[in-house]
Write a structure and sequence with these properties.
about 375 residues, 6 helices, globular
């Protein structure tokens, strides 16, 4: 849309899911654009049924986060339940210091529950409908745990403790988002911690079809200084409501070269079934980077890989309700903005590091099949 706010609404008899992606207009004052966008989100969610923000993310430079949160609080009013959004720091994109905001909301006849961590701080929400009990956690981090590797371990343990308090484990998680400061410096050590944790909690080691969540591990920095942070979704009920695709499209399982995640997952969600496509890049069947140094060809290959995964999950390009593009440098962002064949998705584009120094571009999408 011309105003930069795109909304997708998925309805069922039990609930409505609303996906909002908003990008500020270039050259406009931050406070003006923030007020316009947050007010638009407020107005959309104040409908006839109780609406709750399920997960929310703000993308921008560190300096802009405080002003954005101030305007958000003024605009949201009663729809602000005290759960903070994930604040994710990137380099300044072409449009200015703020890259955008992404909201997933749920409207239903039942009230959402605010989830709190062991310190009593709000960190997520759960919603119940006739079809499922769905939980989302945001900005789970443990900056007090020591170095980056210890923070990663403590982050997983903290999230797992919350899940166990709700009667489930990481086996109920279809999707994680992992925000890693200085990712290229310690991604292999992060993968070691994730793999060890997944083995201990039963995700890995029991069968070849391990229920590894779909995931993105990307070099966006959690605001405030933590080395890493995590968002996730979990299906508390019904049981066995998640399907995992370890290998998909043109790519084999990432676990074969050291990364414990599935290429995609599909889960029962409040208004239907949602497909989560993991962070995907210009990588071949054997896990090798393709087209080193060539942003155009990496972008084209990445988009082709994403479309291939969607096809394997019985999704069409028109089913995408959220899309994020991660560009290593401004020139990669410029190439992506003018790329031929770029799908008309609700893009939010960030400049940040990808998990390998030679990777220039990565994409993740969320889709809801309408059939």
């Amino acid at each position: 849309m011309a105003d930069g706010v795109r909304t997708y609404t998925i309805k069922s008899p039990e609930a409505t899911e609303v996906f909002i992606s908003a990008v500020p207009r270039p050259g406009q004052p931050i406070d003006v654009e923030a007020r316009r966008i947050f007010q638009a989100i407020h107005d959309r969610l104040c409908g006839t049924k109780a609406a709750v923000i399920f997960q929310e993310r703000l993308f921008g430079t560190e300096a802009v986060m405080g002003p954005l949160l101030a305007v958000r609080g003024e605009c949201y009013g009663p729809i602000d339940d005290g759960v903070p959004p994930s604040l994710l720091v990137c380099a300044q994109p072409r449009i200015g210091p703020w890259a955008g905001v992404q909201v997933h909301a749920v409207e239903s006849d039942t009230q959402a529950e605010v989830i709190r961590d062991s310190q009593g701080c709000p960190c997520g929400r759960s919603v119940r409908t006739a079809r499922c009990h769905y939980l989302g956690l945001s900005a789970i981090a443990a900056p007090q745990a020591g170095d980056a590797q210890h923070q990663a371990r403590a982050m997983f343990e903290q999230a797992h403790a919350i899940l166990k308090s709700k009667g489930v484990s990481f086996l109920a998680v279809p999707r994680t988002w992992l925000w890693l400061r200085d990712i290229t410096d310690w991604y292999s050590r992060f993968n070691h911690e994730r793999t060890a944790f997944f083995m201990e909690c039963g995700i890995l080691g029991k069968s070849e079809l391990s229920p590894m969540p779909a995931s993105t591990g990307i070099g966006l920095c959690p605001a405030g200084g933590a080395a890493c942070a995590m968002d996730l979704t979990a299906v508390l009920k019904p049981a066995k409501a998640i399907e995992y695709l370890q290998a998909a499209g043109r790519q084999r399982s990432a676990y074969e070269y050291g990364s414990a995640f599935s290429r995609a997952s599909r889960a029962v969600t409040p208004a239907g079934r949602t497909v989560f496509v993991s962070g995907t890049a210009s990588i071949d069947h054997d896990g090798r980077t393709l087209h080193t140094g060539d942003p155009i060809r990496q972008i084209t290959t990445t988009l082709d890989n994403v479309l291939a995964v969607l096809a394997d999950m019985d999704c069409h390009a028109a089913d995408v309700v959220q899309a994020m593009a991660y560009c290593k440098a401004p020139e990669v962002e410029a190439a992506f903005e003018t790329a031929r064949g770029r799908p008309d998705w609700p893009w939010i584009t960030m400049i940040c590091d990808v998990c390998r120094p030679e990777l220039l571009f990565e994409v993740e999408v969320t889709a809801v099949p309408r059939g």
